[in-house]
Amino acid sequence: MKVAVFSSKPYDRQFLDAANRGRHELRYLDCRLTVATTALAKGSSAVCLFANDEANATTMMAFAHMGVSLIALRAAGFDNVDLNAARAHGIAVARVPAYSPNAIAEHAFALLLGLNRKLHLAYDRVRRGNFALDGLMGFDLAGKTVGLVGVGNIGSVAATIARGFGCKVLGFDPVHRQDCRARVDYVELDDVLDRSDIVSLHCPLNESTRHLIAKRELALMKKGAVLINTSRGAVIDTPAVIEALASGHLGGLAIDVYEGEDKLFSEDRTGQVIADRQFARLMALPNVLITPHQAFFTVEALTNIAAATIGNLDSFERIGRPLYLVNDKEGNSPEPRRIEA
After folding, report:
1. Is the pTM of this model over 0.85?
2. What is the pLDDT of residues 227-255, one digit of tens each?
3. Fold classified for 2-99+299-327
4. Which one in 39, 116, 253, 303 has a CA-CA gap of 20 to 30 Å to 323?
5. Known catalytic membership, residue 261
6. Which CATH number fits domain 101-290: 1.20.1250.20, 1.10.10.10, 3.40.50.720, 3.30.2130.10?
7. DSSP character for 263?
8. Residue 281 among the catalytic residues
9. How far, in whole angstroms, is CA 217 from its chain's centroid?
10. Which of 54, 217, 259, 261 is catalytic?
């Protein structure tokens, strides 16, 4: 198959080429998919997209006219794809459902540990020759309550890690996994927020989770509690979070995702003025730690993403259906609905 690979970086090319072994003609494009760049897919029967590519209704119409019949996502989430438009034009959408739950869960705790022990502040101080400890005090994780919003593949790993630190674990998810019952006390979302010292988000972005953590939910959280987000940026209401941080009610925020990240992340913007005022406000707060959507960025995860992506292409070419189909022509999904992908 001829495949246009949007938002491709050198590491994408390295791992995709290793998995592909010449089977498909992969054409790598540095740019993101937008309405303006859609024409670059001309001549391809499939496109390969990442999390910040915009596959909207206009894009789908253009793809249909070009003969594109498959969108292969290099990600688990598919909130950036208009599934109804894809279905209407007969375009199959595939994803990578569980490339490395360990990578995401481990990064969530890296964020938590870094934020709690003020590692970002300490590192900057030491580089400037300041070895004072004032303002760097954290707290023991042992004995604290960690609340997980989403207890699927990633959340279940996060629960294991939290228990390893000696934490009590609460979880909210419509699906109660039998293999997690020994590690997680399932409760309602309001209970998770009210009782947790640390809240970690592990849910996809959809109609029910957009701004799931907003002003009301933040008010339910313990004063001084910490919020971690490695899921999707729009799961939290950023202005409400900034307000909670400024008032001192929210003790800290660590995020690997941001609602406006498509205009910021994945590029070197050294020396540029950050026009996003909300993001600039977050960066100015000492109790905020931000990483640039790198939780997935491990050798194991990239290897699995590439293998599953090429597997989707192989299967579609062979039988007309990818291995991990998000939508079919009847609008059905082969996977049960849950709060975490």
Report:
1. yes
2. 999 999 999 999 999 999 999 999 999 99
3. Rossmann fold (3.40.50)
4. 39
5. yes
6. 3.40.50.720
7. G
8. no
9. 21
10. 261
